[in-house]
């Protein structure tokens, strides 16, 4: 990210993708039928309080679409965007390394025919999981895959406050996240950290501390979005009873700017807001297009006279690009 006077004030994903892969790139979301330890009774039942029954994913497998068909259909949609457009195979739903190693090997094998093509459309593979469900055997497989295609491991932190983690039933700790990031990066894989702003009990200071934690770990990518209350979640009941509030749009942009100022300058912002199908979304009721959020963030940083990394505590310890 240039420091010139007209340079963007934060490092957005699309320019980074274009520079990295030399062509337009889009995600193909996949549901491999995984679950989570806070759903199956290993650590708890019901999952995170904000997470819906599809595990913040597509629910495609439950609807009957097998993984190979999901990938084929998704790549066909990407191909319709134009010749040479690349795809990121994104294993999104639930915790994708929370499976037997034989099952993970089977899931990853779905990629093989596409990676063997001379004109292969897949430029990267992204695996969403939890920091406490990432055994070394899974990292072994991902490291092997990374010899053929770039591999990203997306780890949910959500908040750096362990008390808030317990309250939202994440059932892991900041220390476990830090350890998982270190192990992912030691394998030469790209690590992306995920956080939610506005979690109950976290507050604006909590959001700032979470951004500082993400910067400290050196994750190459960061996903941020506001708390959303979805139907059929534990959080919905609390919201309807008036025990949970969500951020207003202007408030969210202010908090977002706080976080961006505290990230390392070279970290790539993969996401700045969240979305949900209208039929699923309970609150907040404001809807702002992603490009509008980006513009508002840019305007707020300009108003403050700051940019990504302005309040980063260790500018000399930046993650690799």
What best-fitting shape do the alpha-carbon axes yield? globular
How large, in whole angstroms, is the Cα Rg?
19 Å
What portion of residues belong to β-strands? 15-25%
- Compressed to H and E, one letter per element, the order equals HEHEHHEHEHHEHEEHHEEH
Q: In angstroms, what separates the terminal alpha carbons?
A: 10 Å
| Unreliable stretches | 315-321
Number of strands: 9
What is the CATH third-level topology name? Answer: pyruvate-formate lyase- activating enzyme
Q: What's the CATH architecture?
A: Alpha-Beta Horseshoe
Query: Helicity level, as a percent range?
Result: 25-40%
Main CATH class: Alpha Beta
Oligomer: single chain
Mean pLDDT: 92
CATH superfamily: tm_1862 like domain
Number of H- or I-type helical stretches: 11
Number of domains: 1
Detailed description of the structure:
With 321 residues, the chain is α/β, with parallel strands linked by helices. The chain has a single domain, classed as tm_1862 like domain (pyruvate-formate lyase- activating enzyme, Alpha-Beta Horseshoe), CATH 3.80.30.20. The chain is built from eleven helices and nine strands. The protein has helices at 13-21, 67-79, 101-109, 112-115, 136-145, 162-167, 174-186, 203-217, 234-240, 249-262, 290-304; strands spanning 25-30, 86-91, 122-129, 150-158, 190-197, 221-226, 229-230, 268-271, 281-283. Helix 2 (67-79) links the parallel strand 1 (25-30) and strand 2 (86-91). It is globular, with a radius of gyration of 19 Å.
């Amino acid at each position: 990210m240039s420091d010139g006077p007209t340079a963007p004030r934060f490092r957005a994903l699309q320019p980074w993708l274009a520079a990295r892969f030399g062509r337009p790139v889009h995600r193909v979301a996949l549901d491999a039928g995984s679950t989570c330890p806070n759903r199956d009774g290993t650590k708890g039942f019901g999952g995170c309080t904000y997470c819906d029954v599809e595990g913040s994913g597509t629910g495609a497998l439950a609807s009957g679409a097998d993984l190979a068909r999901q990938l084929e259909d998704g790549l066909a949609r990407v191909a319709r965007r134009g010749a040479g457009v690349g795809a990121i195979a994104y294993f999104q739903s639930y915790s994708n390394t929370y499976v037997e190693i034989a099952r993970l090997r089977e899931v990853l094998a779905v990629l093989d025919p596409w990676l063997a093509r001379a004109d292969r459309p897949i430029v990267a593979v992204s695996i969403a999981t939890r920091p406490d469900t990432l055994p070394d055997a899974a990292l072994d497989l991902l490291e092997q895959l990374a010899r053929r295609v770039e591999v990203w491991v997306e780890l949910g932190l959500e908040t750096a406050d362990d008390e808030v983690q317990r309250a939202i039933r994440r059932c892991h700790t900041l220390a476990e996240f830090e350890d998982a990031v270190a192990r992912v990066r030691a394998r030469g894989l790209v690590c992306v950290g995920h956080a939610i702003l506005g979690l109950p009990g976290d507050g604006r200071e909590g959001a700032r501390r979470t951004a500082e934690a993400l910067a400290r770990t050196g994750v190459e990518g960061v996903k941020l979005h506001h708390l959303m209350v979805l139907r059929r979640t534990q959080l919905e009941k609390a919201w309807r009873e008036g025990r949970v509030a969500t951020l207003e749009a202007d408030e969210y942009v202010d908090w977002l700017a706080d976080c961006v100022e505290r990230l390392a300058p070279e970290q790539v912002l993969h996401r700045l807001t969240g979305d949900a199908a209208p039929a699923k979304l309970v609150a907040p009721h404001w809807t702002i297009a992603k490009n509008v959020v980006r513009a508002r963030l840019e305007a707020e940083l300009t108003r403050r006279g700051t940019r990504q990394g302005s309040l980063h505590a260790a500018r000399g310890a930046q993650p690799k690009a």
